[in-house]
Design a protein that fits this description.
mainly alpha, 15 helices, 80% helix
Length: 349
């Protein structure tokens, strides 16, 4: 299946998921939903939207620090465009894996060399993943014990698994950088084993590909290592960015005029939802994200507001970037930039 058809299929799946979410929401009774929405202070809804905009701005700013250090001529509007393209394709692809080729292609179309684009995006990914893992450690230490009993106990296992996966990604990234020879030997061993099992046919070609990728990663990481001030700025921006993102549910909570649960507990629950979503192989972790959110927040919002708060949160953090991304994608397609075939275009350039 071509990338374009795959992305269309993913969009259809996202649309179906949205319809299902509406059906579940309205199953609670249209009158109850309307009454709950009438209780929501519009000002807080605007603040929640603003939080999402700050999250996007923070993502763009963090990426811009890296891009600017590599290509001083790059404009922030270009970096912001690249960020929103990444948000869109990450939302509609499993494991948020589809954004980077499109981001690299967009950077290149705006005059940035391939190597610089990849290094900037890698820098952003490493800092974001590292910061998210630090947040996870803090929340696991100070709040996980609150949910280890009762109905949420199974979810705490999933939270732990998600944390382990995020931590493994960070460990792997640093292993690739600091233990280059050992990592290469391990990678070669895995490829040769898969070759013996006849899972991989062209073993030599795969080994050459791995060597090229590891060399590229190592060179990129050496640049990152040489820019401590840039990394510190990216880290601080990401700390604020994630805090604002985690705060969206707290804003919704206050918007309903509710009280009794502290800010740290609510953002911890939000972080736990993100940890669970990390290893679900569906676009946007559909189903798992909504289900875990409703489970964690039912005791906080109560059954009356849980469905509406889930819908508002999910729309702002998942469907809104998709809608914005569709508009951007259509406009770029009209200008001759087919982002759906970005990987093929990069190879041709």
């Amino acid at each position: 299946m071509s990338k374009k058809k795959s992305n269309k299929l993913n969009l259809i799946i996202c649309g179906i998921a949205f319809v299902i979410m509406l059906i579940v929401l309205f199953s609670e009774g249209i009158d109850n939903i309307i009454n709950a929405l009438l209780q929501l202070n519009p000002l807080y809804l605007l603040i929640a939207v603003a939080c999402m905009a700050v999250y996007w701005f923070g993502e763009a700013l963090g990426l811009h620090f890296a891009a600017k250090s590599l290509e001083p001529s790059v404009k922030f509007r270009t970096t912001f465009l690249v960020t929103m393209i990444g948000q869109y394709f990450n939302c509609i692809t499993p494991f948020a894996s589809g954004g980077q080729p499109m981001q690299v292609y967009t950077f290149m179309k705006r005059g940035m060399p391939l190597g610089s684009a990849m290094t900037a995006l890698l820098s952003r990914f490493i800092v974001y993943q590292f910061t998210l893992t630090l947040y996870s450690v803090v929340f696991l230490i100070f709040r996980l014990s609150m949910f280890t009993d009762g109905d949420l106990k199974p979810l705490t296992v999933l939270v732990t698994v998600g944390f382990i996966i995020n931590t493994f990604v960070i460990v792997l990234l640093f292993m690739l950088a600091f233990f280059r020879k050992a990592t290469t030997k391990i990678a070669h061993g895995i490829v040769r084993l898969l070759g013996k099992l006849r899972i991989i046919k062209d073993v030599d070609d795969k080994l050459e590909y791995i060597d090229r990728e590891l060399d590229t990663y190592y060179e990129n990481f050496m640049f990152i290592k040489s820019q401590p001030v840039m990394i510190l700025k990216m880290f601080l921006v990401t700390v604020v960015q994630l805090l604002v993102y985690f705060s969206i549910t707290f804003v919704i909570y206050k918007g309903f005029g509710m009280s009794g649960t502290d800010f740290f507990t609510i953002i911890a629950c939000q972080a736990f939802v993100l940890m669970i979503s990390a290893f679900v192989p569906l676009p946007g972790a559909m189903g798992a994200a909504e289900g875990s959110y409703a489970a964690f927040f039912k005791g906080i919002f109560g059954s009356y507001y849980t469905g509406v708060s889930t819908f508002i949160w999910r729309f702002l953090t998942f469907y809104l970037p998709i809608l914005i991304g569709i508009v951007i994608n259509l406009r770029m397609t009209k200008k001759g930039f087919d982002l759906n075939n970005a990987e093929e275009k990069i190879k041709e350039m």
